[in-house]
Write a structure and sequence with these properties.
alpha/beta; OB fold (Dihydrolipoamide Acetyltransferase, E2P); 2 domains; 7 helices; elongated
Length: 231
Amino acid sequence: MNCVIVDYDAGARARLVQLAGLVEGLCVEAEYGTATEAYQYCCDRSVDLLLLDIGTPDMSGLEVGRMLKETATQIVFTTVKKDYAAEAFDLNAADYLLKPVEPGRFLRAIDKVRGQLSRRRDAAASAEEECIFIRDCSVLRRLRFDDILFAEATGDYVKLHTRERNYSVHITFKTAEQRLPGGRFVRVHRSFIVALDKIDSLQDGGIFIGSKFVPVADTYRRALNQRIRVI
């Protein structure tokens, strides 16, 4: 995890550098005496953590926080005053440290930042897992799993059915089964995989998804009934 330190007081910067040295994996990439320089640095590079003094003379640390609010950079404000805590947390600050910063308090702030960064990474990974890219003619198209009703084997292609249109993808049905998340989809026939949450009804011999009928083979029926919790 990288960080940038901002404080007009050289002694305060040195103190934060010293505290950062106590934390394994925390790398101080830059330190500045003005908020303007630090803000420009954050705009040009990816910064995990900004240790930001509120009272920098050229531009308030809170103003910098407002400008960086929508970015991934986590901000821990440092100050000699308690007065700005509410405003700081309104800006989604990870923490708010009073000077002189004590080692234990600093370490707790770093733990908060790591937790925030970890949750962001998990959310990003989850978002990536919510879709698949398919080749549609000469275009790679993003298709959300939630939009897929069912997949159908058609010769050398797999047809992915959605409410708006169908996409024919040149892959094997086995590959399609591997690419579609098992928690959402279930195979019901040698030629069909359906989205569990799109099933509207089951009747003898098959499934209805809206007005579309999908056959269910006897060899897959028991597994299907277990997945949809038939009682």
